[in-house]
From TrEMBL:
HAMAP family: PriA. This is Replication restart protein PriA. CDD domains: DEXHc_priA, SF2_C_priA. It comes from Phocaeicola coprocola. Residues 296-464 form the Helicase ATP-binding domain. Its EC number is 5.6.2.4. Binds 2 zinc ions per subunit. It is an enzyme of class 5 (isomerase).
Length: 820
């Protein structure tokens, strides 16, 4: 009987494709495995089988699949159910989900760029085909798979590429940007003939005229701790030796040729690189113990529980106890953190307790490492705990019992671009329910919707109102900067009180954090004469000025421009640095406190994970006195020498035109304030604002989340926002503005036919042109009780009607469900 397979291809097309399976592959094919399929005229892709069956499609002639890549499924049944839920709920395709879910190394296609791994040394002989590919890459180290196929003459190259990737002889191009950590380390040792002290000394003399080789030998002696006596030497990696001696590999090879050194490979195992010793759990305080028991009680009746605990109340300690409990019951735990909060601080803390049972999944890790975690999750030796960012909801699990979403209010849990525009917290709740697992949402400043669910009994609700060991919450002092500016008493952006408190803190060797919200305050340049501001030629936005690089950058399309010497509008030469970026604050603070050690943490100074961790480590170690930063400084970091926190401008957060702006402003200020305070001294927060009389300011000062919730929930009800209504934004994009306007009006009209006044717009979003495409947005507001599946169906029906219209062929339509 002829076999057919339904597959997901990594493309944004609706529905699945059916292929036929050639006879020689019928035994190998299984649902959940990856296969290679032709698609379009020449291209081929890695697709995933969702179903094996015997029904040929009626509408089209099937093509044969080319190859089966896996012996056993890499996509488990429940993962596939989860993918379907995501595509359905977030109005995107399974192809979109597939692309987001799998690490690059698992979804090769004809256009994938591969490169030689410079660290590779073959441990076993390579096949003839593999060798041919390496030779080709040796000539030109970066090629796409189609190109390699052409020049090697090997048909159907993917299995060969896959084998080379598994041996780590080659890498997918993307991961070169990340810091790649090899699994096998090449190490250096003295050869057998060099084992005696005498032999080594003879070698010293012999190398007198080869100073570079001599220096390298000396370096080795130093690094290995060799003393001539019989004892264990330290292992020395080839890279460490060459790096610290500043020598080239030619020098080393010379010594190997002379029989001084030999090299050997050592398997270091990337995932469990160091053997960690596991320490016992901290006992919980009585308040924590109480919260812990309440959580477990709620879990008897409810699937989701909110742990609302002030900053530093010990939420993380409670998570650790819950994880331990789940593991003892034979279950797996997924612990989600926002990208930026996933630091060494938290990983070290968990590693200390869970050792090698903990796996860490981070988007800034090398792709090969993510592939390895994925594969390990499919074995019997899978991780008990995964600590990871948003995308770790896609990992395979088989025994999931508990999901923890820390800092659940964080809006970075929502993926903005590209599709699937999913919210990892909400997706995780659904994932957990598919396993019959429980979800704990933890935060000091809940999302309004979450709190609403807790108050109304949909979620369990547990509170921790005291910090651990009665450390006091900080005292917050409000400063009216409008008044001070009028009296000309501000120094740059600093009030006299803030400067005085910074000075006192520095005198007492305490630390300071200065917080500047970035939004709406990106640094720009402006012509002093005519007010001209440079804008991106592809997008409708002002360019951001990077003083360090002396460049203008578009934060939407990434395009960079030179800073003009004169104003193109009026020819004036006085281009001033406007705006309020963190860079400017850094400059000013250095002028005022020339002896202080100042660091800055924002998008520009934290491009790599190491840069980010460096800044935090220096601050922890007291190597920095003042840390200036954007929202990043507010994220779950735990410092114990910070006595003063300055919030430079509260208004920039509150005035943002969005229904969540007050909620966010409260969350940001409460979180950043939470960094202040130490074991035996109450911390101080200086909150600078132009509107000290706003109720929100009073709520922040008294840490009155309940008050904030009350006022927000009334507004949300009145203006039809979540949690009372669900929002769906419909975006339309087109190169031509007239075509876009026509399409948007037509689509909004169709939508109104079915949904009436639930449809608003079309409008131009604040940024109405990105990468040369014009954008329009239609807002749909649906009552919480309404049937979402009907609404989704209707939206898709309207979309089909629009895109099938001749005039709108190249129109792009996409959705943002539950936008943040
Ligand atoms: P949160 O997650 O609520 O911000 P943490 O769990 O990070 O709070 O606790 C704050 C600090 O107090 C941490 O340094 C943590 O190690 C310490 N701490 C909290 N609870 C305990 C405990 N039961 N035993 C020992 N240290 C604790
Ligand atoms: Zn000008
Ligand atoms: Zn741009």
């Amino acid at each position: 009987m002829k076999k057919y397979v339904d597959v997901i291809v990594p493309l944004p097309i609706a529905g699945q494709y059916t292929y036929s399976v050639p006879d020689e592959l019928t035994d190998k094919i299984k649902a959940g495995c990856r296969i290679v399929v032709p698609f379009g005229s020449k291209k081929y892709y890695t697709a995933i089988v969702t179903k094996v069956h015997q029904t040929a499609p009626e509408a089209y002639e099937t093509k044969d699949i080319m190859e089966v890549l896996d012996e056993s499924p890499v996509l488990l049944r429940r993962q596939y159910d989860f993918w379907q839920w995501l595509a359905d709920y977030y109005l995107c395709t399974l192809g979109d989900v597939y692309k987001a879910a799998l690490p690059s190394g698992m979804k090769l296609e004809s256009e994938t760029l591969v490169v030689l791994n410079p660290e590779f040394e073959a441990l076993q002989p390579l096949s003839e085909k593999e060798q041919r590919i390496l030779d080709l890459l040796g000539n030109d180290s970066e090629q796409c798979i189609t190109q390699l196929e052409k020049s090697s003459g090997i048909k159907n190259l993917l299995p060969v590429i896959k084998a080379l990737l598994e041996k780590e002889a080659i890498l997918v191009k993307e991961e070169l940007k990340r810091s790649y950590k090899p699994r096998v380390e090449t190490r250096v040792r003295l050869s057998a003939a060099m084992q005696t002290e005498e032999a080594v000394h003879r070698q010293f003399d012999a190398l007198a005229r080869a100073p570079k080789q001599l220096a390298l030998l000396m370096k080795y002696i130093e690094l290995s701790g060799w003393t001539g006596e019989k004892k264990e030497l330290k292992e020395v990696s080839r890279k460490a030796l060459l790096d610290s001696a500043g020598a080239t590999s030619a020098v080393l090879n010379g010594l190997i040729g002379k029989g001084v050194f030999e090299i050997y490979s050592f398997e270091i195992g990337r995932l469990s690189a160091e053997q960690v010793s596991v320490s016992p759990l901290n006992p919980l305080s009585s308040a924590q113990q109480q919260a812990y028991s309440e959580i477990l009680t709620h879990f008897h009746q409810k699937n989701v529980c909110l742990l609302h605990g002030v900053t530093a109340s010990g939420k993380t300690e409670i998570y650790i106890h819950l994880i331990q409990q789940a593991i003892q019951a034979g279950k797996q735990v997924l612990y989600l953190l926002p990208e930026i909060a996933l630091t060494t601080q938290i990983t070290e803390r968990l590693k200390r307790v869970f050792g090698n049972r903990l796996g860490i999944y981070h988007s800034k890790f090398p792709d090969a490492e993510r592939v390895e975690i994925w594969r390990k999750q499919l074995t019997d030796d899978d991780y008990d705990v995964i600590l990871g960012v948003r995308s770790s909801v896609f990992l395979p699990f088989r025994r999931l019992g508990l999901v923890i979403v820390d800092e659940e209010h964080e809006n970075t849990y929502k993926q903005q671009d590209p599709a699937p525009r999913y919210h990892a917290r909400n997706a995780a709740i659904v994932l957990a329910s598919m396993f019959g697992a429980k979800t704990l949402l933890g935060t000091a400043t809940p999302c309004i919707e979450t709190y609403y669910n807790a108050v109304h009994g949909k979620y369990g609700w547990v509170q921790l109102t005291e910090r651990h060991q009665n450390v006091l919450l900080p005292h917050i002092e409000v400063v009216d900067i409008k008044e001070l500016a009028r009296k000309k008493r501000m120094t740059a952006q600093f009030s006299p009180l803030l400067l005085q408190k910074i000075r006192e803190a520095l005198e007492q060797k305490e630390q300071v954090i200065l917080f500047q919200n970035r939004r709406g305050f990106a640094p720009m340049i402006e012509c002093r004469t005519c007010g001209w501001i440079p804008k991106c030629k592809n997008c409708d936005v002002s360019l951001t000025y990077h003083k360090g690089l002396n460049q203008l950058t578009c934060h939407y399309c990434g395009y960079t421009y030179e800073v003009p010497k004169s104003c193109p509008a009026c020819g004036g030469v006085e281009l001033i640095n406007r705006g309020f970026g963190t860079e400017k604050i850094e400059d000013d603070i250095k002028l005022i406190f020339p002896d202080a050690r100042v660091a800055r943490m924002d998008l520009d100074t934290t491009r790599t994970r190491t840069a980010y961790e460096r800044i935090i480590a220096d601050f922890e170690d007291g190597k920095t006195d003042i840390l200036i930063g954007t929202q990043m400084v507010s994220k779950g970091l735990d410092f114990d020498r910070v006595s003063v926190v300055g919030i430079l401008n509260a208004d920039s957060m509150m005035n943002y035109p969005d229904f969540r702006s007050y909620e966010r402003a409260f969350q940001l200020m409460a979180q950043v304030a939470g960094r202040a305070g130490r074991k035996n001294k109450q911390g101080l927060v200086v909150l600078q604002t132009k509107s000290p009389d706003l109720p929100l300011i009073a709520q922040v000062v008294s840490n009155d989340y309940g008050g904030l919730f009350q006022s927000q929930i009334e507004e949300r009800n009145l203006f039809k926002y979540p949690p009372f209504y669900r929002l769906i934004y419909v975006y339309l994009k087109h190169r031509k503005e007239e075509v876009l306007d026509q399409a948007a009006d037509l689509m909004a009209g169709y939508l109104r036919n079915g949904l009436g006044s639930r449809v608003l717009g079309p409008d131009r979003p604040p940024v109405s042109r990105i990468q040369t495409l014009f954008i329009k947005k239609i807002v749909v507001k649906i009552e919480q009780q309404a049937s979402m599946s009907k609404v989704r169906e209707y939206l898709q029906q309207v979309q089909r009607a629009i895109v099938e219209d001749e005039r709108f062929r190249s129109l792009l339509v996409y959705y943002d469900v539950d936008p943040m």
